[in-house]
TrEMBL record:
Chain residues that bind ATP: D12, A13, G14, K15, T16, F17, D61, E123, G124, A125, G126, N212, C213
Binding positions (Mg(2+)): T16, D61, E123
Protein name stated in the entry: ATP-dependent dethiobiotin synthetase BioD
UniProt-listed Pfam families: AAA_26
Gene Ontology BP term (one): biotin biosynthetic process
Subunit-level organization: Homodimer.
Active-site annotation: K44
Tree of life domain: Bacteria
Record EC number: 6.3.3.3
Signal peptide (UniProt feature, chain positions): none
Class of enzymatic activity (EC top level): ligase
Keywords: ATP-binding, Biotin biosynthesis, Cytoplasm, Ligase, Magnesium, Metal-binding, Nucleotide-binding
Amino acid sequence: MKQIFVTATDTDAGKTFVSCALIHALTHHNSASTNETMKVAVFKPISAGCELVDGQLINEDAKLLSEFANCNQSIAHINPIAFEQPIAPHIAAKKLNQQITIADISHHYQQVKSLNADVTLVEGAGGWRLPLGPSPHSPVTLDAKSTFSNHNTETTSDNKKLPYQFLSDFVKGAKLEVILIVNMKLGCLNHALLTYETIKADGLECIAWIANCAASDAMNNLSENISELEKLLPIPKIAQFDFITDVDEAGNNISYHEKINRAANKINLSVLV
Ligand SMILES: Nc1ncnc2c1ncn2[C@@H]1O[C@H](COP(=O)(O)OP(=O)(O)OP(=O)(O)O)[C@@H](O)[C@H]1O
Ligand SMILES: [Mg+2]
């Protein structure tokens, strides 16, 4: 089973858009071993920005992922930790007197893994280093080899240091392979390189990157920027997506599903199948 974590240079970079395109491409691809279409399960561990429907918090990303994946998962199965307000999740949790823990995320991930899909795709939230807040476990002695560097701590009122946790610590624990989505805009070279270097420093494999134009106004010198990243990132670029407008040349509306279909056709799946 392939386990992929989709991260990006920032929020709104196209993680959900690209994830749906990857899922669409994979579910229309026959597995080499069984010659059957591939089974893809999805996981969006944390979301902030949800609609309350019949007492259940529904996140749009989880809904979209569920429409493309093919393992009959419920929204709650896909997205177990959800907050209504569109703010940093650990701040949303704190306002509700809740804590987001790696143990909780890992427990829910095990349930998704137990579906035994050919590919399990996990969409992150925000960028790579998404804070989850101080660990609720008893204070630990921090050393140089600790997962958490010493400055990533919160001091409690009784002067104990609690280590801060990040979503990337879950990715480390689950040993997921990472795909990096680069939102092609001014500043993306710095963001892409910092994110790639941090993923590597965390001891994880970043197996591919995708250039995505998530905004309608294309950046100046787009092709030169993509060429620079091709030189600087030592991993394959497996797709390049232009911004796909809502209306085509003939004036017809293009649905989200049609956009995803068009994007999926441009992906080189060789690192995934
Ligand atoms: N190549 C593209 N063409 C057209 N629209 C795009 C493209 N990439 C992204 N978008 C649109 O840009 C917006 C942001 O993309 P998306 O929601 O996928 O970002 P994200 O990284 O998942 O954000 P979040 O951090 O909130 O999860 C969405 O409306 C999406 O449909
Ligand atoms: Mg998203």
